[in-house]
């Protein structure tokens, strides 16, 4: 199927993979506010093809570094996980059982959560939420910051990622009655950047409340954007070479462009993908450095 073909393409090119299916609801209802309880159909419909792919690739995955393939159980469903921790724990166990049967056991293929909601969990069922986190191997929050200050160099990335992590921890710990057991468990998990957002504006990496933006139309502004974007990725790679707490960073391009090139159509309404040699070389050099 389409999922398997995409996974094969990424794996054959040497990419690390994080499989993170998102649920969509009618009338654009925010999935973060959904209260549904996952059941066997949730695991079957969202993860069956991924598990089958893992089974077909279990030998190569087994010989790859731990975390080369990851899967996110719940993406942007923090209210659902907080209100139904026992159901999500069962879902995590069911997914792990399927992965075990496919020949890839814990910890070779980690299971993660995109977001946590300890403030809500503390009011609901703190103990069960901590039990859920016992079945989780990593946290994978989305990081959408102002990335426009490219002149700051590597420090730009460090500040942005530190700010994102501190904001999440403050949100969890400032609330009276925060789930201390779950908070302690969170500090022990590994962390990856699930979505490093880079959009058509480096200052506003996402669209929330702003409509879908397009890249600059005039050649001069587009050229400036491309230069700044190259510097941003250079800063990111320099930061990753320092082996920060964040184990991995997954680049999210917001359906605007691929991670190694940008271009705008003549009328500015759609973007064509083309290879940016400078950024491509940056990623190749980092991959070579990382492998040695």
Descriptive notes:
This protein is an alpha/beta fold. The chain is built from eleven helices and seven strands. The protein has helices spanning 2-12, 40-56, 58-63, 78-83, 85-101, 118-124, 126-134, 154-173, 180-188, 219-240, 277-291, and strands at 17-19, 69-74, 111-113, 138-139, 142-143, 190-197, 246-252. Strands 1, 2, 3, 4, 5, 6 and 7 form a seven-stranded parallel beta sheet that branches. β6 (190-197), α10 and β7 (246-252) form a beta-alpha-beta unit. α10 (219-240) packs parallel to α11. The longest helix is centred in the C-terminal third of the chain and has 22 residues, at 219-240. The two termini are 35 Å apart.
Write the layout of secondary structure elements.
Elements: H1 2-12, E1 17-19, H2 40-56, H3 58-63, E2 69-74, H4 78-83, H5 85-101, E3 111-113, H6 118-124, H7 126-134, E4 138-139, E5 142-143, H8 154-173, H9 180-188, E6 190-197, H10 219-240, E7 246-252, H11 277-291
Parallel strand pairs: 1-2, 2-3, 3-4, 4-6, 5-6, 6-7
Q: Could you write a compact summary of the structure shown?
A:
The protein is of the alpha/beta class and 292 residues long.
- Listing every helix as H and every strand as E from the N terminus to the C terminus, the arrangement reads HEHHEHHEHHEEHHEHEH
Give Rg in angstroms. 20 Å
Structural class: alpha/beta
Shape: globular
Q: Give a count of the beta strands, DSSP E runs of length 2 or more.
A: 7
Fraction of residues in β-strands: 5-15%
Number of helices: 11
């Amino acid at each position: 199927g389409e999922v398997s073909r995409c996974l094969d393409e990424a794996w054959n090119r040497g990419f690390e993979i994080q499989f993170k299916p998102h649920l969509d609801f009618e009338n654009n209802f925010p999935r973060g506010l959904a209260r549904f309880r996952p059941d066997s159909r949730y695991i079957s419909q969202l993860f069956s093809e991924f598990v089958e792919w893992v089974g077909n690739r279990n030998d190569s995955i087994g010989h790859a570094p731990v975390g080369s393939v990851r899967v996110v159980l719940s993406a942007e469903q923090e209210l659902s996980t907080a209100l139904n921790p026992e159901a999500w724990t069962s879902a995590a166990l069911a997914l792990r059982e399927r992965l075990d049967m496919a020949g890839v056991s814990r910890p070779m293929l980690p299971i993660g959560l995109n977001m946590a909601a300890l403030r809500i969990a503390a009011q609901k069922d703190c103990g069960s939420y901590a039990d859920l986190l016992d079945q989780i191997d990593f946290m994978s929050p989305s990081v959408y910051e102002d990335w426009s200050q490219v002149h700051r160099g590597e420090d730009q990335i460090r500040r942005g990622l530190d700010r994102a992590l501190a904001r999440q921890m403050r949100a969890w710990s400032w609330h009276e009655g925060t789930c201390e057991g779950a908070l302690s468990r969170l500090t022990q998990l590994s962390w990856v950047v699930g979505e490093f957002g880079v959009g058509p504006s480096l200052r506003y990496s996402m669209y929330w409340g702003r409509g879908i933006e397009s890249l600059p139309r005039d050649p001069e502004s587009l050229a400036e954007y491309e230069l700044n974007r190259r510097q941003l990725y250079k800063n990111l790679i320099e930061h990753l070479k320092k082996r920060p707490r964040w184990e991995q960073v997954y680049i999210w391009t917001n359906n605007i462009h691929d991670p190694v090139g940008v271009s705008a159509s003549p009328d500015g309404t759609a973007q064509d993908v083309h290879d940016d040699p400078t950024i491509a070389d940056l990623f190749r050099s980092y991959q070579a450095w990382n492998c040695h």
